């Protein structure tokens, strides 16, 4: 794009004043909180203002407009960069909200929180996540266009828009951004613009202590278009760069913008001190004088500035009205697609989708990962909103939708609108990309890797839980049951550590039938992430004519096999592959005359959401002899087994050997479960102490 084609920026004194007003508000908000991050909100003011006022396609009166551009502030610490634009644009934030920065219950928490403040597209704060989330949004935009309007010319579809992301040195340094940016280049995401605030300062001061590569050269090597702007205060140059980046067709664009953190504060600009602390009354006063403001006035925002900036509402409404005409025309010429879009947007599932779930009754044994693959393939034809893939383990994770195209530019041998995601070996980016996809629209995405590598995704999983995003992790190879690959690949602590994340459903089905119900339940939830924990090895398919219905999975735990007569004396609680061991142990216990109940507990979170009466029906409070069986650390199981219970668990790493040997060696056998039951029964007999609580 040549500079001559770029429209001249209209920029008057009120715009100039508005940028200084932003700087003043940023300083004052942090000063009033006593802490916060003023520096970058001050230095990035011209870029943020230009974007929101002149370039971003948005209508502040309709923040959920599907045709809007998305803005991601990856450097979430600089939340004022966003909050002040939301205030000036008219999203509902007020000066009073800015005065309550970082305060209890305010709309202006320290870091932007999606679902809390209108206009915040994603929660950011953990550096690097925002860039990868933006990549996910850009991928979702292309997929959604492919679903509904694949034949439109580039830039001409109502589903076309741009994903904008502002990022700081920390975002650029974090590995997740490299993973995601590499993939974005490979995917040729021309709808993505990353603005890198190259201010050479992070918390420890000059970034020369930790960063020396040529970032733009790195991005060029990834396949990005790059643009340099030598001074963020050169608004025409910033504007030209924005327009050129937006109009770039074929690659994502990185705009490297040089800025001076804390500008124009006389003493603290260009120092780490401007990053994350109040500038102090004296410095604030001096800065206001430099800007021509009265140093005695705080939160200065003259009416003329607000009247000027709120005109962006007119601009946005006009853009939207224009778009609406096109959308209506599209809808009338694509009635089927339009009704499907409506369904998906309302997060409704297609009629009869669950009838498509496979019935595994005829199978004798099957790995739950394979059952999961069968489920995905059974429901995929009725659910176009379902897509996903793996971090290079599709065959192992059984995530492939058979017959579907790979989501890839044609140059790389796929279809730009394909349904199979290839994340490459980039688990952390995969997690954040899934978040971006879920945030962008109502499609349902899944992503697979080995459970042990969920650690590599954890930062993104945690954000999915915070944002309540309905993404599904397909985590296979779930225990020592994976066998020969050994301790690096055998999860031991992962179940406990994932269960520790509030709002994440950790679901470990016992057999193929439970896997189908687990998928059904996950799909029926649209307000939280879930991890499916699946076995590599075959597991017996439980005969449901003689055992409890797998529908109990939806309640998190259920009686799979009750005592043959009367009230059980002992309850065995197991998950996943260890349920079969519990069933075999029950047979032994029953043979010796101990009435035994087996409870399958695939999802604690779902069980904990049940009424106390149901919980007590399953875990009879009067039965204090209990054994938990799970080939992982015992952490968390005491909540269910109580003072008299025993845990059959694994408190050390595994080893490289065939899995049956490992189960023997580490004591995951029916005989050991029986011994544990005896031990628990004797504790109950020996004491009259308190039993388990809460169930
Ligand atoms: C993953 C992660 N690690 C550490 C932090 C803590 N932290 C917040 S900002 C920051 C670095 C600030 O430097 P930069 O990213 O250049 O932002 P600037 O000061 O230029 O605004 C750090 C280490 C974080 N928010 N996220
Ligand atoms: Mg910096």
What is the helical fraction, as a range of percent?
25-40%
| Average pLDDT score | 96
CATH architecture call of the largest domain? 3-Layer(aba) Sandwich
Summing up helix and strand content along with how strands pair, one would put the structural category as: alpha/beta
Number of strand segments: 20
The CATH homologous superfamily of the largest domain: Thiamin diphosphate (ThDP)-binding fold, Pyr/PP domains
Strand content: 5-15%
- The total tally of domains equals 3
The CATH class of the largest domain turns out to be: Alpha Beta
Q: Which small compounds were modeled alongside the protein? A: thiamine diphosphate, magnesium ion
**Cα-atom Rg, whole angstroms?**
28 Å
The main β sheet shows up as: 6 strands, parallel
Number of helical regions? 26
- CATH-derived topology of the largest domain: Rossmann fold
Q: Shape from CA axes?
A: elongated
How far apart the termini lie comes to 66 Å
User: Going across the major beta sheet, what is the strand order?
Assistant: 10-9-11-12-14-13
In the predicted model, the low-confidence regions spanning at least 5 consecutive residues are 688-695
Short synopsis of the structure:
The protein is of the alpha/beta class and 695 residues long. Strand 19 (625-629), helix 24 and strand 20 form a beta-alpha-beta unit.
Protein model, in words:
It is a single chain. The relative contact order is 0.09. Helices cover 40% and strands 13% of the residues. It folds into 3 domains: 3-318, Rossmann fold (3-Layer(aba) Sandwich); 353-540, 3-Layer(aba) Sandwich (Rossmann fold); 550-686, Rossmann fold, CATH 3.40.50. The protein is α/β, with parallel strands linked by helices and 695 residues long. The site of thiamine diphosphate has 17 residues, from helix 7 and strand 4. Residues 168-169, 199, 201-202 line the site of magnesium ion.
């Amino acid at each position: 794009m040549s500079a001559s084609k770029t429209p001249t920026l209209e920029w008057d004194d009120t715009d100039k004043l508005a940028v200084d007003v932003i700087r003043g508000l940023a300083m004052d908000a942090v000063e009033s909180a006593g802490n916060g991050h003023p520096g970058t909100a001050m230095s990035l003011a011209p870029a943020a203002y230009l974007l929101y006022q002149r370039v971003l396609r948005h209508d502040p009166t309709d923040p959920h407009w599907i045709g809007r551009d998305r803005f991601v502030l990856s450097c979430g610490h600089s939340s004022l960069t966003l909050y002040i634009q939301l205030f000036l644009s008219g999203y509902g934030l007020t000066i009073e909200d800015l005065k309550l920065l970082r305060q209890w219950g305010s709309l202006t928490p320290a870091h932007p929180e999606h679902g809390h403040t209108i206009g915040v597209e994603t929660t950011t704060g953990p550096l690097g996540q925002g860039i990868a989330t933006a990549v996910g949004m850009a991928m979702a935009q292309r997929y959604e266009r492919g679903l509904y309007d694949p034949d439109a010319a580039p830039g001409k579809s109502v589903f076309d828009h741009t994903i904008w992301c502002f990022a700081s040195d920390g975002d650029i340094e974090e590995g997740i951004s490299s993973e995601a940016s590499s993939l974005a280049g490979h995917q040729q995401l021309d709808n993505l613009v990353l603005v890198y605030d190259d201010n050479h300062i992070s918390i420890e001061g000059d970034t020369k202590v930790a960063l020396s590569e040529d970032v733009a050269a790195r991005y060029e090597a990834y396949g990005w278009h790059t643009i340099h702007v030598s001074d963020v205060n050169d608004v025409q140059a910033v504007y030209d760069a924005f327009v050129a980046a937006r109009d770039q067709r074929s690659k994502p664009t990185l705009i490297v913008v040089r800025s001076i953190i804390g500008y124009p504060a006389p003493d603290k600009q260009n120092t780490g001190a401007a990053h994350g602390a109040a500038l102090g009354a004296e410095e604030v006063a001096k800065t206001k004088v430099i800007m021509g403001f009265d140093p005695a006035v705080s939160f200065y925002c003259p009416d003329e500035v607000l009247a000027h900036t709120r005109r962006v509402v007119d601009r946005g409404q006009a853009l939207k009205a224009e778009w609406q005409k096109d959308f209506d025309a599209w809808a009338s010429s694509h009635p089927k697609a339009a009704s499907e879009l409506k369904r998906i947007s309302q997060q409704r599932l297609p009629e009869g989708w669950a009838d498509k779930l496979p019935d595994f009754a005829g199978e004798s044994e099957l790995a739950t990962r394979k059952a999961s693959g069968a489920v995905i393939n059974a429901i995929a034809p009725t659910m176009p909103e379902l897509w996903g893939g793996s971090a290079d383990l599709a065959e192992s994770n059984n995530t492939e939708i058979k017959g579907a195209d790979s989501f890839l530019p044609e140059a790389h041998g796929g279809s730009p609108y394909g349904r199979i995601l290839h994340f490459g070996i980039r688990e952390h980016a995969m997690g954040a990309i899934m978040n971006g996809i879920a945030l962008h629209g109502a499609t349902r995405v899944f992503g697979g890797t080995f459970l042990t590598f969920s650690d590599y995704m954890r930062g993104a999983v945690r954000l999915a839980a915070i944002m309540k995003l309905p993404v599904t992790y397909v985590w296979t190879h779930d225990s020592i049951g994976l066998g020969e690959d050994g301790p690096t690949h055998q999860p031991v602590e992962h179940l406990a550590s994932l269960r520790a994340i509030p709002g994440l459903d950790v679901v470990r089905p016992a057999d193929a039938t439970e896997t189908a119900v687990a998928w059904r339940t996950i799909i029926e939830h649209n307000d939280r992430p879930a991890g499916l924990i699946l076995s590599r090895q075959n597991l017996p398919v439980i005969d449901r004519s003689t055992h409890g219905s797998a529908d109990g999975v939806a309640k998190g735990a259920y009686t799979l096999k009750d005592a043959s007569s009367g009230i059980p004396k002992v309850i065995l609680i197991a998950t996943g592959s260890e349920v079969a061991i519990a069933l075999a142990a029950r047979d032994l216990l029953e043979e010796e005359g101990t009435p035994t109940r087996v409870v399958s507990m695939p999802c604690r979170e779902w069980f904990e959401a049940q009424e106390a009466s149901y919980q007590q029906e399953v875990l009879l409070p009067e039965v204090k002899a209990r054994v938990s069986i799970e080939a992982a650390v015992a952490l968390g199981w005491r909540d269910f087994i109580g003072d008299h219970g025993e845990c059959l668990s694994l408190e050390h790493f595994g080893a490289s050997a065939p899995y049956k040997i490992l189960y023997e060696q580490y004591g995951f056998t029916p005989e050991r479960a029986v011994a544990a039951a005896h031990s628990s029964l004797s504790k109950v007999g020996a004491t009259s102490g308190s039993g388990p609580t809460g169930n």
